[in-house]
Design goal:
290 residues; alpha/beta; Rossmann fold; two-stranded antiparallel ribbon; 41% helix; 19% strand; binds S-adenosylmethionine
Amino acid sequence: MEEALRAAERRLRDAGVPSPRVDAELLAAHLLGVSRGRVRALALTGAQVPEGFDALVDERARRVPLQHLTGVAHFRRVDLAVGPGVFVPRPETETVAQLVIDRAAGLQHPKIVDLGTGSGAIAAAVADEVPAAEVHAVELSDLALAWAGPNLAPFGVHLTRGDLATALPEQDGSFDIVVSNPPYIPADAVPNEPEVAEHDPQMALYGGGADGMELPRAAASSAARLLRPGGYFVLEHAEVQAPWVAAFLERSGLWTAVTTHQDLSGRDRATSAVLATDSTPPDTTGKAAP
Ligand SMILES: C[S@@+](CC[C@H](N)C(=O)[O-])C[C@H]1O[C@@H](n2cnc3c(N)ncnc32)[C@H](O)[C@@H]1O
């Protein structure tokens, strides 16, 4: 098996795959139904390469995401089913989930919503690690909902089909925490990696507007509507957007404690804020107050 793994590694490296040896081992592990560590041990014993290995390596060399080939994305302690039509959760979003989990730890029965849940990654991880929480998730894409439904059902998450800009109006003012990793890429910033550009759904990537900020702004407006006074909002964004997010939250006058957070590589990738206790939820009905 070692020779086949080496050949796969060369093939994947030539195709520009960033971690060719790891991916080769993970594909073999997937086919054998064992851990990657076990594959490395088997490789030393002269075991045969599993059937179907070359076909999977071919697909990976065509830059099909590893997680689409194995059918699973690992996110914190949760294994999520993923494939075509749903955004593959990213490691930096685990830091965003951590902010939610830390905040929820101080609350007895926190009510939490994840806006734009995709595969359900944040909602599932929070429900898993904060069992006393009531967790809701909102998603607009039917393709993503087809993945999120089965991923979230075991965790008792309440999943709603809806637009994050208008979702759950009947629950306005009732949430302790709102979290969102919305689409935020600017329209003209097409990602370089084929795994992203060709396989992540467009609807999961582009935030709207030249700066990609339309959906992040909509998530913040919804958070101000959905949270109780003193409630906590966490938003993931691109590094370049960190000052813009802080500025629009501060300028709105609705938020206090606006704080930028770094991911594990030190990039400003999330912002949290607390809904001011004297804030008045914005009028989303379009009717002016008398
Ligand atoms: C960047 S992905 C993040 C998915 C997931 N939260 C994660 O972190 O892995 C953004 C998600 O928002 C969804 N989305 C896009 N526009 C939306 C909208 N207007 N309302 C609700 N969800 C939306 C996309 O379908 C996608 O699943």
